[in-house]
Design goal:
The protein has a domain of 64 residues: Alpha-Beta Plaits (2-Layer Sandwich). The chain is globular and about 55 Å long. Helix content is 53%, strand content 13%. The strands form three sheets. The protein has a four-stranded antiparallel sheet with strand order 5-6-4-7. Strands 1-3-2 form a three-stranded antiparallel sheet. It starts with a helix and ends in a 16-residue tail after the last strand. It is built from eleven helices and nine strands. Helix 9 packs antiparallel against helix 10, helix 9 crosses helix 11 and helix 10 crosses helix 11.
Length: 307
């Protein structure tokens, strides 16, 4: 299989997904490529970048309009051209999601837990709060009892206050007795956080992108456009799995956790192709002032540092 065949396979796999979530791919493009370089891009250049992935201009325009209505993006019209950037709420949601993608290894876990009791909430409010806590990485130990191993009590309280549920919930801070992660606790974690299902998602990611990494190591002939497509789909697919991952401490994870392998693979591919992808962006993505500015310093801190 050639490099072009590998890229074609990645594009076909994306196109075959139903529904085709163009808006999600546009958010990936903003988070990975546009935000580090000023954050604003001309709508026409977005369409030209996404066209090789099978997304036509009409679909791009429809998706950008929807993202604007959902407060992800905000637009500005200059002459006959429209330019879009992340909105204030969109940037906050972006920061929550994308800092997970490029994170390093979590610090050593001392064995602490934050427990949130939802038993005093009304049913409708309880479900809403439960879903938001799960989004933040909490697991359900028993009905009405949510737990998180690394999020502190103050952070949990702030989150519950934002949800208007702080007065009707109980927050407890607990410490696990030695050993930190006994076998029954690890089994409970595996069940409460559905780790087997998450491992299956990571395994599919590994199977999808390992062939590309093998080719990059053996004979790297990807051109700038192919690198841009590969990098965008790499981060898009990895981000989708990461959003499911509570990022639990190593002590609570199964041996040979697939998430570690996926992170390593994503980092290796990204480091190998990011420069050529940046060159493609230099020539094909425009702001109102012209080409995108160079990436800021934080861009080069991704995945523990880009060479």
């Amino acid at each position: 299989m050639s490099f072009s065949d590998s890229i074609d396979t990645l594009v076909r796999t994306f196109q075959q997904r139903r529904p085709l979530r163009t808006g999600s791919l546009i958010i990936t493009l903003y988070g990975d490529a546009i935000v580090p370089r000023g954050g604003t891009a001309w709508l026409g250049s977005l369409a030209s970048l996404l066209e090789p992935m099978g997304i036509n201009e009409r679909l791009v325009r429809t998706s950008v309009f929807r993202l604007t209505k959902e407060s992800w993006l905000q637009g500005e019209k200059i002459g006959r051209r429209s330019y879009y950037s992340l909105s204030g709420p969109g940037r906050r949601r972006f920061e929550q999601a994308f800092k997970r993608v490029y994170h390093g290894q979590p610090p050593e876990w001392p064995g602490n837990w934050t427990l949130v009791l939802l038993t005093q909430l009304e049913d409708s409010a309880r479900q809403r709060v439960k879903e938001e806590l799960e989004w933040q990485g909490f697991g359900s130990l028993t009905p009405g009892v949510m737990a998180h191993p690394t999020l502190g009590r103050l952070d949990a309280l702030t989150l519950l206050q934002e949800l208007g549920a702080a007065e009707d919930t109980v927050i407890l801070s607990e410490a696990t007795s030695a050993p930190i992660a006994p076998r029954p606790l690890c089994l409970q974690v595996r069940q409460s956080w559905q780790l087997d299902e998450l491992a299956a998602h990571y395994q599919r990611f590994l199977e999808q992108f390992r062939p590309l990494w093998t080719q990059l190591r053996d004979d790297d002939h990807l051109n700038a456009q192919e690198c841009f497509i590969a990098r965008t789909l790499l981060i898009h697919e990895y981000r989708k799995v990461q959003l499911r991952d509570p990022l639990l401490p190593d002590a609570l994870l199964p041996t040979a956790w697939e998430g570690h392998n996926a992170h390593q693979l994503c980092r290796n591919i990204y480091r190998a192709i990011y420069r050529r992808a940046e060159r493609w962006l230099d020539h094909h993505l425009e702001t109102a002032e012209g080409p995108l500015p160079a990436p800021g310093p934080s861009f080069y801190q991704r995945f523990g540092g880009l060479d």
